[in-house]
Amino acid sequence: MECLVDLGWSGTSTTEVARRAGVSRGAQQHHYPTKMILVAAALEHLLEAQRLAYETAFAVLPKERRNVTGALDLLWEVFRGRPAKALMELAVAARTDEELRPLCVDLNERILQTIAETFERLFPANTLPPDFTDTMLRGLFAMFVGLSIQNALDDDSRGHQAAVLRQVKEIAQLIVPEPGGGAPQRAPAATAAGAP
């Protein structure tokens, strides 16, 4: 993943990965004979590590932050991190790489599945219709991908990504129940109505 962030897809090689990992080229090739097999294994590891880190980070939030706004703040942190940048690199490269494309299409679906499963675990009182939840999470994923690309270019120097995130959190508070079965939070009337 470090190679993908630092060198891009075209610059990532099994030789460079072995060098950075401090293993011999022979040992690396014994376990991962091709670049594609190596990247697929790394993605498996990355996805599970990211899920565990996210759920752990959510669990240690102060109680008043263990809600949908806290969950979205953490998700935005994930999308701005180095592992997400590696995934973005793969997604962009897959547009023109026929061999890489199936891996990335499958990866997108697995990420969405992980997000959906995590959402269900964190918000078990959710009563949204399953088809709405699926579409909502796909839309959120697509939006965060786009925002993270913008963030990689300008580090939100004008505050546009933060403004989008604020509005998304206000909307989410209206439709997602609090963990533990409480009623959905309501955005403050002035904010919800757009008043000063």
Automatic annotation (TrEMBL):
Alphabetical list of PROSITE patterns matching this protein: HTH_TETR_2 (PS50977)
Matches recorded under InterPro entries: BetI_C, Homeodomain-like_sf, HTH-type_TetR-like_transc_reg, HTH_TetR, Tet_transcr_reg_TetR-rel_C_sf
Keywords: DNA-binding, Repressor, Transcription, Transcription regulation
Region (Disordered): 177-196
The organism's place on the tree of life at top rank: Bacteria
Record GO terms (molecular function): DNA-binding transcription factor activity; transcription cis-regulatory region binding
Bias kind Low complexity: ranges: 184-196
DNA-binding region: 13-32
Domain HTH tetR-type: 1-50
The name this protein goes by in its record: TetR family transcriptional regulator
Annotated organism of origin: Actinomadura verrucosospora
